[in-house]
Structures are given as C-alpha cells and as structure tokens.
Design a protein that fits this description.
Layout: H1 15-23, H2 25-44, H3 49-79, H4 86-91, E1 98-103, H5 110-116, E2 121-126, H6 136-144, E3 152-153, E4 166-172, H7 181-194, E5 195-206, H8 210-216, H9 226-236, E6 239-246, E7 250-256
Parallel strand pairs: 1-2, 1-4, 2-3, 4-5
Antiparallel strand pairs: 5-7, 6-7
C-alpha cells in the first residue's frame, strides 16, 4: 500500500495557474509577444486600413486569449470547489473499501483521497506512455511536477489487477492524454474489467465545447467532446450514474459497472 502525508497539503494561492503557465509556457512565450508585436506594427507601420484592422483584431485576440486562459485557470484550479475534494465524497454513493487512482505523472489527488478514505486499501498507478501520450505539455508537466506519494508505473493496456478486484477507480484529468481512440477504448475496457459489478469509475475531464474554447482558445482541441466520453463508457460496458459540472469548464462523470455486466 502506498503512503501519503497525513496533514492536508497546503496549496499556494496561485499554485494552479502557475502550474498551467509552466506546463504550457511555449504558448504564452510565443503568443503574447506576437500579439504585442502585431499591435506595435499597427501603431507604427504605414499600412493600409484593412490590413491594419485585421492585424489589430488578430493581435488583440491572441493577447486576450492568453490572459483569459490564465484567469480561468486560476478560477478552476485555485478558487473553485474542485480543489477542495469534498465533492468526491458527496458524489460517491458509498465510501470505497479498495480504490485505485490513475494518473499520467501529474498527481495532486492521491494524498487527498487517502485523507478522505483513510480506512480503505489504496493503489496509485501512473500510466504515462510516450507513444500513446504525444502532447508536449504532458512531458513538460512530468518533468516539472512534484507528485503526492509514490506511484507504480503500469501499462494502461494490462492493468495489474484481477477481474472485479476494486470498487472505485479515479481517473482525474488523465484519460484525454491518451491521444488515439483505440488507446482510450483499450484503457476503458481494462477499467471495466478490474472494477467490480456495481463498482464506480470517477472520470473528470474538460470538454471540447464552446465554454472551453472561449476559455482556452485552440487549446480546447486537447480535450474531447462529451459524446466521445459517453460513447467510450457505453462501449466499455459502463452506465452513467451521475453527471455534473464543477465550474462551467469541468465535467464529472460517475460511471458504474452494472450488476449483470460481463
């Protein structure tokens, strides 16, 4: 069983937004200066009106997008109920006796889960696979992040548990890092296999929707639409027990393996 610090982890006031900036710094390092350069060209260069307006509009959008994404990130990861973790207890129908937390190298939840459910048996798995998780941001996050407690690296295609071995699995901001539909289907089939009938999978994700587009601009393509998660869950054999938003930008799915599921 893994060990985690018992006292609550003290988060800095701006820890969440600073992490987002560090993990995605190339976007901000290129986007903001490019936007400012465009506005400088508009102000100083003798160019025709139409190109000037287009450059000014595009540059303003780039700068506004960078600022908006950081403001929204601060709201989500520093100020919202998402950070308090009590919503997890309120979401689950019963306290788990054997839970597994799965992440891709960035883990801010295992310590909180251990404190919420101290009597339960627990496992923490890290499933990072550079061949299946190809976004540069996850590689940077792994280099820069400090995780709570130790994790066992496992293959997401063959999870090291017997069938129906645990009652609750947490997959929080992790599943979207698997960039191919085939990899995600394989992962969810394994999740279905190891969770017991009437056991639960708590899936937390941003969605590729209008709200996340307004917040993160082109970065919203890193996420997947709601319909893909619903289809993935259904194909794996899960049913949706609960579904709700934490903030307008984060979706929580509580999936259940039906009692008669094979």
């Amino acid at each position: 069983m893994n060990k985690w610090p018992k006292p609550p982890t003290v988060r800095g006031r701006y820890q969440g937004v600073l992490q987002i900036f560090r993990y995605n710094w190339p976007y901000y390092a290129v986007g903001a200066p490019a936007g400012l350069l465009g506005l400088g060209v508009v102000a100083l260069a003798p160019i025709p009106t139409v190109p000037k307006v287009l450059i000014a509009l595009g540059s303003s959008c780039v700068i506004a997008g960078a600022i908006t994404s950081l403001v929204v990130s601060h709201y989500i990861y520093d100020l919202s109920p998402l950070c308090q973790r009590r919503w997890i207890v309120e979401t689950l129908p019963e306290r788990p006796k054997h839970w597994v937390n799965i992440h891709a190298g960035l883990d801010e939840t295992s310590g909180a889960l251990a404190r919420l459910f101290p009597e339960a048996r627990a496992k923490v798995w890290e499933i990072y696979d550079p061949a299946a998780m190809t976004e540069p941001s996850i590689a940077r996050a792994r280099r820069l992040a400090s995780c709570e407690g130790a994790a066992t690296h496992v293959d997401f295609r063959r999870l090291p548990l017997q069938d129906c071995a645990c009652d609750t699995i947490f997959v929080i901001f992790t599943a979207h890092e698997l960039r191919s539909a085939q990899a995600r289907r394989r992962f969810f089939k394994e999740l279905h296999r190891v969770v017991k009938p009437q056991g639960h999978l708590l899936l937390v994700e941003h969605l590729r929707d209008l709200k996340n587009f307004l917040a993160f601009g082109p970065g919203f393509f890193h996420f997947y639409p709601r319909r893909q998660w619903v289809l993935l869950a259904n194909e794996a054999g899960f049913a949706i027990a609960k579904e709700f938003n934490i903030t307008p930008f984060v979706k929580v799915f509580l999936l259940v393996r039906p009692a008669q599921s094979a």
